[in-house]
Structure formats: structure tokens, C-alpha cells
Write a structure and sequence with these properties.
Layout: H1 5-20, H2 34-52, H3 58-69, H4 71-79, H5 91-102, H6 104-126, H7 128-131, E1 135-140, H8 143-150, H9 158-167, E2 171-176, H10 183-188, H11 201-206, H12 218-226
Parallel strand pairs: 1-2
Helix pairs in contact: 5-6, 6-9
GO molecular function, one term: RNA-directed DNA polymerase activity
Keywords: Endonuclease, Hydrolase, Nuclease, Nucleotidyltransferase, RNA-directed DNA polymerase, Transferase
Region (Disordered): 1-21
């Protein structure tokens, strides 16, 4: 309870302002420029949540958001993949999921990362005889890959985990390098050889890195590699 008149007036004023606040109107998902409309609407929603629902739990905030987006987008929400049950999802997590739905350019960025990672996986598997059992340093002109390689596997995007698991067979370190300075890779990309083979899933599952299980001291194993 407030102990003085000034505090009581301040609390009353805050209460009046919160009751006058209204949530943003329903977003028109059929707008010509949906990405920009979504960005503005999202800012209005977050401002409303901070001012009017700061003390409410995340479940209530998510329910209000789903009401505002309408029945069609609630159906889209039901098809989205989350790593946690619905009762534990926060508004931030739900908004991030809708970011990709409302911003096609963001989806294109994800596709770009997948292609860049696939190129790394292809290089290792294609040159398996030379890369297996050896420490390999990869340079990529795609900055997000460097960040993804430093994360634990469970924190990587779901669409990339399968390929990252294939790379775990190898001892690989990846770092970013500006594309304009990667002269050899640029030349090879213009003179590639056709390849129509594919690695069998069974061989992928059965592959074992024997250097991780052999009973030799690290120093002895290193001498064998160098020899």
C-alpha cells in the first residue's frame, strides 16, 4: 500500500493509463508488404504488453496474441514446430516463430545457410579418404556458419541438425573468411566436375571413427598420423 499522497496519485495515474490502453487491431496478413506491416504491428503489440500486461503470465500473453492474429493464423500456429509444450511457450518464442511466416526474406536466409552447410558436408564426404581421421580447417564466406559451428548441436536450427551430425564424423574447425579473398574456392566453383553418386544412409549410420576408440596414447597416435 502507498504510504503518502504522492505515491497514491502516481499509482492511480498508472492505473488510469493502463485501462485506457487498447491492444493493436488485427493484422491484415493479406497486406501487400506483409513484412513491414508485421514489423510495425509487432512493435505496437510489444509496447502494449509492456504497459498493460507487464504483470501477467506468458500464457495469457500468448493467448491474447493468438486472439489478435485471427483463426486462420491460429491454424498456422498449430502447424509450427516448437521444442517445448504449448503451456511453457513465451510470447517472445511465438513471435520469433511468426517472424519467419511473415518475412519470406528471412526464410530465404535460412535456405542460404542450408546450402552453404550442405557444401561443407559434401566436401567432407566427397574427400572422405583425405578428411577422415585428420584435423581439417574450413574457411567459409558465410558468417552465420561460423556461429552455428560454435554452438552445441541441440541449439542449432532443426533444419541443420541432420547435416551437422554428418559433419561430426570428422575433426573440423570452421572460420569465416571474406569471399573476395578466397581465390581458390572461387575458381573451383567455376570448374566443378559432375557427380551423380550419393552416400548410403546405412554406411552413414555404421561409420565409426576408430581414432576415438583405439587404445593408444595421444602422442603415439599423433606420431602414426604424421608418419
Amino acid at each position: 500500500m502507498p504510504t503518502d499522497g504522492h505515491q497514491a496519485c502516481a499509482n492511480a495515474g498508472a492505473t488510469d493509463r493502463s485501462t485506457q490502453l487498447k491492444p493493436p487491431a488485427q493484422l491484415d496478413f493479406d497486406a501487400t508488404n506483409l513484412a513491414d506491416s508485421w514489423k510495425r504491428w509487432k512493435q505496437e503489440l510489444e509496447l502494449y504488453m509492456d504497459l498493460a500486461m507487464s504483470g501477467r503470465d506468458e500464457t495469457s500473453k500468448v493467448k491474447l496474441f493468438l486472439y489478435l492474429v485471427g483463426s486462420r493464423r491460429r491454424e498456422v500456429y498449430d502447424t509450427m514446430a516448437f521444442e517445448i509444450p504449448a503451456s511453457e511457450r513465451t510470447l517472445t518464442q511465438v513471435l520469433e516463430a511468426f517472424d519467419g511466416h511473415c518475412n519470406p526474406r528471412k526464410n530465404e536466409s535460412v535456405d542460404k545457410i542450408e546450402k552453404e552447410l550442405l557444401a561443407v558436408v559434401y566436401g567432407f564426404e566427397r574427400l572422405h579418404t583425405y578428411t577422415y581421421g585428420r584435423e581439417v580447417f574450413v574457411e567459409s564466406d558465410h558468417k552465420p556458419l561460423e556461429v552455428i559451428f560454435k554452438r552445441p548441436l541441440h541449439r542449432a536450427p532443426k533444419s541443420l541438425r541432420r547435416m551437422l551430425m554428418r559433419v561430426q564424423l570428422y575433426d573440423v574447425s570452421l572460420a569465416y573468411k571474406k569471399g573476395s579473398t578466397m581465390y581458390l574456392a572461387d575458381a573451383l566453383s567455376r570448374a566443378y566436375l559432375p557427380y551423380d553418386g550419393s552416400q548410403d544412409v546405412a554406411s552413414e549410420i555404421e561409420s565409426i571413427n576408430m581414432t576415438q576408440h583405439i587404445r593408444l596414447k595421444p602422442r603415439t597416435l599423433q606420431e602414426i598420423k604424421e608418419g
